[in-house]
Amino acid sequence: MQQVTEIQAVDFQKQIDALTAKVSMLEDMNQDQLSIAVVSGDFDKILAAMVISLGAAAMDTEVKLFFSFWSIAALRDPKKSVRGKNFISKMFGIMLPKGWEHLKLSTMNMGGVGPRMIKSIMKKHGVLSLEEMFKQAGELGIEITICEMSMDLMGIKKEELIDYPNMRIAGAVTFAGDMGESSAQLFI
To answer: Options 3.40.1260.10, 3.80.10.10, 3.30.70.3280, 3.10.580.10; which CATH number does 31-187 get?
Structure first.
């Protein structure tokens, strides 16, 4: 049986150290992260984004959501109101749904009957409501970034948004950076 010499042991240790450093660098480059750009404000599409997010987070994947344009209406808190808006901002405030309870379906909305039917079926099958999903998402550390430009265009202020523990307001560049670190990106 051949014995490992001291010189061979030092070489092995150097190789192990080099491989450990390389693995660490590769792990840092492509994290186990999912980034989802949520642009639609339809109930079913917000629901899909949340179901996918919760599923990925349950599998220990870091999840980052970027809410932009019409999807931001889902994050408006119906209990909060803001003063000091200009005419256009007030009009957007009136026209946009105020929170997830008022979102429409992308198809078969049927004057508001469709969302009520879906919510009833979800409840019957034990599916979490959107409110419960957002609560669970916060507990799982899912990050929500809200597009600053979209908020400015639609006159939505930070003070009228839901209370969510991992929420930030930032631009598309921030989300592009998040996507670059992600192993998967979705657009809903």
So the answer is: 3.40.1260.10
